């Protein structure tokens, strides 16, 4: 028995409901809506390279093993932040334990060595997952390269003026003696320059964080299919 979706009347074998006049055949034979909630298409589901929305341990395995140095495709927000926050937490715990073990010893410099090795090991997978996350939003790797390049240039510039900056803060905070008017102008100029560089780096970093938190494009884009949660 087939009933009308509007009034519930029995419309078996009828094209129009005798009670409310609704056309029945269009309702019975209408194809499913294209925007109806459906799982991933077979083409995506059968693609071994299609990205996924992983669990926490799965995100670590993807970034550290399967895609350690992979800058292609897309990555979901969960993949990125699961990896970044988890590795940051364990890195801080490891360095804290290393400091406890080496506290008040002549081997304190080993903490720096551990930090350098850890940063070197995590650099490539971190850059890779950030690039894939930018792809998911629809951006290329250029925002990340610009941020890294500007940050490196800032370090170089501040290194050139390292002695001058030390003198500035020494005179400002150590009461090194009276300053001549020209020295005051130079001090203020370098101090403003230093603040401007730091402020621009911070603004660029916050802009990148905003992009990494932005929802990915729906459906496939030029970087590949959209991430989906596998059963």
Can you describe this structure?
With 231 residues, the protein is mainly α. Helix content is 60%, strand content 0%. The chain contains 8 helices and no strands. It is elongated and about 95 Å long.
Shape: elongated
| Gap between N and C termini | 36 Å
Taken as a percent bin, the fraction of beta residues is under 5%
Number of strands: 0
Give the rounded overall mean pLDDT.
Answer: 76
Order of helices and strands: HHHHHHHH
The class by helix and strand makeup works out as mainly alpha
Poorly predicted runs of 5 or more residues: 26-46
Structure annotation, total helices: 8
- Percent helix range: 55-70%
From the alpha carbons, calculate the radius of gyration and give it in angstroms: 30 Å
Q: Biggest sheet, open or closed, and with what strands and sense?
A: none
Summarize it.
This protein is mostly helical. The chain contains eight helices and no strands.
Break the fold down into its secondary structure elements and pairings.
Blueprint: H1 25-29, H2 42-45, H3 56-66, H4 77-101, H5 109-137, H6 142-160, H7 162-173, H8 181-213
Helix pairs in contact: 3-4, 4-5, 6-8
